[in-house]
Every structure is written in structure tokens, then in C-alpha cells.
Amino acid sequence: MRNVVLSIRRQLPLVLLGAGIAVSTLPNLAFSAGGEGGSNSIPTCTKGKVYDTRSKKCVSKNSSAVPDKDRTEYAYALTQAGRYEEALEVLDTLKNPNTKEAWNYRGYATRKLGRTDEGISYYKKSVAIDPKYAMVREYLGEAYVIKGQIDLAKKQLMVIKSICGTTCEEYEDLHEAIENPSNI
Fold first, then answer.
1. Domain count within the chain
2. Are residues 14 and 104 in the same domain?
3. How is 30-85 classified by DSSP, letter by letter?
4. Which of 7, 170, 180, 183 lies 20 to 30 angstroms, CA to CA, from 146?
5. Is residue 37 located within the same domain as residue 110?
6. pTM for the complete prediction?
7. pLDDT at 10
8. Is the pLDDT of residue 9 over 50?
9. pLDDT class for 40, splitting at 50, 70, 90?
10. How far is CA 119 from CA 16, 126, 170, 184, in A?
11. Which residue windows are transmembrane per the record (predicted)?
12. Residues 90 and 142 in one domain
């Protein structure tokens, strides 16, 4: 799914231009995949705002009208856009931060900020909530690869295999990370 979204993101300006829509007139939005295996694409907003799926608008990140599910998916969209600090700020606004997705995305953002051990601690909280959550297993495995703990990464790969087989994206991505650690 992530590869499809990236492909769409690259092709969108060309499609819009082909349709006679001037790309420069579009709002500053970047589309990213949201949620586990989600097909939803949500835009990212300017700093200090979150995307509200009900109003289909960017609103203040402190707005009480935006539910935790939207905030969590928006934080994931921010991580995919490389906006890790902002993702953590959004996760800090959750009413219930104790979900598998919230802990996973918090782990991902902190790992990407170079705080791998902290990221691992958040991944483990996600695993404790749902041991069969393949995405967190992938990211935890990648964290172990970064730390040079390939044996632990391979254990996560085997868990992913038991969850969704060898053709799911999480298995393929972690396998690639183990084979080519410089690509993480």
C-alpha cells in the first residue's frame, strides 16, 4: 500500500495538469496512507493543524471535535511525510493514547528521530496490546536491524510470517531491511 501511495503522490501533479488543473493553485496538502492496511488517503496540513475527516478540513490540533482515530491516522500521515516531531505532538493530544496504532506510530516517529531504544519501548507497548499486529512487528524488526540485532529482527520476521505469510507488505519490507540495512 505504501508503494502505491507513493506512486500516486508522484503521478498526481501530472494527472492534474493533464486535466487542466493548475497544480500551483492546490492547497499545500500531501497525501499519505492512513491506518493499518488502510486504503484511506488523508492529506497533511500545515503545522499546528490536523485533518478532520468529517469536515474534510484542516483544523487546529487542539480542536475537541477531531476524534482520536482521525488524530492517530493523521499522525501516521505525518510520519510518512517525514514530519516526526509534529506526529509526536499530535499523538500527545490523544484522549486515549493506549492503542496499538498510537504506540506503533509513536515508536516509528521516535525511531526516525534517532531515538531507537525509546522507539522499541513504544513498539513493545503496541505488541502487548495486539501481538498479531503485523505493522508493529515490521517496525520493531527494523529497529532491531538498526541496532545490529539481526537475530531479533529475524524473530519478528517469523512472527509476521505466522500472521500474514511471506507475501504481505510487512514481511516483504522487513525481509528487505534485513537484507539491505542501509535502506532503512
1. 2
2. yes
3. -EEE-STT---EEE--STTEEEETTTTEEEETT-TTS-HHHHHHHHHHHHHTT-HH
4. 7
5. yes
6. 0.78
7. 39
8. no
9. low
10. 38, 11, 18, 14
11. none
12. no
